[in-house]
Amino acid sequence: MSSPVPISQLSNSFKQASLSPKKEVSTSPTSSYLDTALRSRALTLNRPKKALKPFSTGDIKMLILENINQTALSTFHKKGYQVEFYKTSLPEEELIEKIKDVHVIGIRSKTKLTANVLKHAKNLIAIGCFCIGTNQVDLEYAGEHGIAVFNSPFCNSRSVAEMTLAEIIFLSRQMGDRSMEMHQGVWNKKSAKCWEVRGKTLGIVGYGHIGSQLSVLTESLGMHVLYYDILSLMSLGNSEQVSTLDELLSNSDFVTLHVPETPETKNMISTPQLAQMKDGAYLLNNCRGSVVDIPALVEALKLGKLAGAALDVYPAEPRKNGPDFQDGLFPEIEQLKTLKNVILTPHIGGSTEEAQSAIGIEVSHTLSNYINEGTSTGAVNFPEVALRGLDWDQKNAVRVLYIHQNVPGVLKTVNQILSDHNIEKQFSDSRGNVAYLMTDISDVNLDDIKNIYEKLEGTPFRIITRILY
Ligand SMILES: NC(=O)c1ccc[n+]([C@@H]2O[C@H](COP(=O)([O-])OP(=O)(O)OC[C@H]3O[C@@H](n4cnc5c(N)ncnc54)[C@H](O)[C@@H]3O)[C@@H](O)[C@H]2O)c1
Known about the structure:
Its EC number is 1.1.1.399, 1.1.1.95. Helices cover 34% and strands 18% of the residues. It has helices at residues 7-19, 31-34, 36-43, 70-79, 92-99, 115-118, 139-144, 157-172, 175-183, 209-219, 245-251, 271-276, 294-302, 333-338, 353-373, 410-417, 446-457, and strands at residues 54-55, 61-64, 82-85, 104-107, 126-129, 148-150, 201-205, 224-228, 240-241, 254-257, 281-285, 306-311, 342-344, 398-405, 422-431, 434-442, 462-468. The termini are far apart.
């Protein structure tokens, strides 16, 4: 037998293990089945493609703020972009100065890209939000000025699903309470009203990226899974879709919510729905704070109708970490804190190292696809346009990207300008006042490119012209 390793050495090797480079983290596996756009793009991935570079923009300059994950920086460096990197957001004046000549800016939630900031950005073509939300950007202003905004809404699905799985067991065994008691020096060994989850029924409301992953994880524990969704969705594993929320509520031992925030989901779980649930059932909300009527939940817990609840999201949440959560954000928080078997977490469902890393990979790839191929799939404020890549042996072919006002007559004018060349393929889409036309043409030499670029730049509807060759 080998001699024991001192604990100090063990902790060093743990640190190294967690820091060692990992394989790239995949995004949600369910996205391949849910997202047909991704699926069709994947079909073209294996074809040898010509590597394109932008004409006339010079080197691509990027301003990357808020300590965005290393995975993104490595993608940008590999592509040869010039990256200016800051660990924090910048004060508005400095941001205005820095944004003036960059082509791309990468941010998280703290940098506010208002119209006042964006109007100084003369070369900006894209904004990468390395997070879920995009409220920090004036999306309308950006869209109207041809600036595509990308984010990463689904990279943390697995993290939320795993946390929900853990909470189901924690609630069922009252582990949150036992742990708090031990921290207070109380030994309270008991088995009354503590259950295995095997054989119990889980009801999932919203069978999207998170809900569907959770169904697979919990079925492997021997749970029976029901789900309710406004869409008719194919079940993963042996889970069963039910046709009404009431049917799900009245048949489930655990109910977990994974719907978006919409007018229909506001207070989706209130007194009538709680009354419909089985006596002694558990409720979990890791989606949005507006979905559960908190006073009604407090009442149901106090009356013993529910045996426990887990909340990660709240009707109001503090802006920063610290001890302010009790200071009047919403009154019922004080009561929630006193109730037995109620797990409260500070909106951490999606907060893991893996999710951050996956966000870095996804947004940096989306941005580089937009810069080098013009593909705007996934943009939140902008027409989504994609064409399969130019074949690697197409030497004299170029891709013309033309963002323009959405008015009649544009296609006629543009195709007139391109008419000396063969149009290999062409696709256009519009969103509001802005349209995006992507055209691959062949038999083009460098002088032609310059000529086409200048003519397109001279058209009255043009917002941004880019040519990739
Ligand atoms: N706690 C966290 O940190 C965290 C992290 C990520 C996501 N979220 C939240 O989790 C929720 C789900 O995320 P997702 O990625 O699975 O979303 P998704 O869009 O993939 O899935 C949502 C599902 O809900 C369904 N749905 C919409 N309205 C409905 C309704 N009225 N009734 C029933 N079903 C309805 C949709 O059809 C869809 O299948 C979102 O609200 C998201 O903001 C929370």
